[in-house]
Amino acid sequence: MELGALLDGATVVIDGGTGTLGTALVRVLLDRCRLRKLVLLSRSEARQAAMKRQYPENGGPLRYLIGDVRDAARLLDAYEGADVVIHAAALKRVEVCEREPKEALSTNVLGTLNACEAARQRGVHRFMLISSDKATAACTTYGATKYLAERLTIGMNNYRGARDIRYSAVRYGNVLGSTGSVLDTFRTCDGRVPITDPAMTRFWLTPAQAAEFVLSSLALMRGGEVFVPKLPSARLLDMAEAFAPGAAIDVIGTRGVEKIAECLVSADEAPWTIDLGDRFAILPAAPTWPGATWPDRQRMPAGWAYTSDTNVQWLTPKQLRSMADG
User: Fold this and answer.
1) What pLDDT score was predicted for residue 183?
2) Is 134 a catalytic residue?
3) Which residues of the chain have pLDDT under 50?
4) Among residues 37, 92, 102, 134, which one is catalytic?
């Protein structure tokens, strides 16, 4: 389905809508769709005030709401009349979630459950969770909460009954220039760059690419998929060369259970993963709702995995700079 056919005349709610992804989504949606209403829910007054300077309400489709996904009643208010919900609200910093696991659980897991249930009660038609590569073979609190958020979201398809609602998720890598990105560390390193491990690799995409992927996945979803984009990788040393040229390298070692390479689809998920050309889709292992299968697509072979160190696409320092400037 074309994006315009899906969203023209629709009401879209983005919770966590004043973050990096939310800002990129607003830019695309206001430019390309004739929405009836675009609602941004977040708990940060400061971020809303900053975003309003760039994207004011001005009598158009845009509406800003203060609220928290931990508050189930507030989500029922925010989702009233919504056709599409993009659930982006989360605690995202690995070190914060390790130190405050109860807070991570309350926002990333229980907040997702609140969002899924509010969408069901309000008659939303499509619900998309924004997940993370850290959910794959999770070894951190953050990753574990995002994996459970995925399972909750996919499992909500079992509760939809006769309702016309679909639940799916997107899972992608690092967003270049997002809040807390390693890009900030490199650009403010003052002549010395801390590198955890020279062998470390990561998947990368820009905020605009992330927004396009979320919206195109909305148009594709049948309910139950975890969509994964095909992304280029970059070595951490190339990141340092791109954004701190000439700086000395300090190898500081990995922090906690930090991975050397990222994995977007694990070998355990391969039997349920299909190739859709520009992306993969991890299908539900045991769907009980109609439309969840893709019988015309072959599954990935046993033992296959999609990892940043075995990728076929690699970014050069020049390409990384171009991505950051674009």
Assistant:
1) 72
2) yes
3) none
4) 134
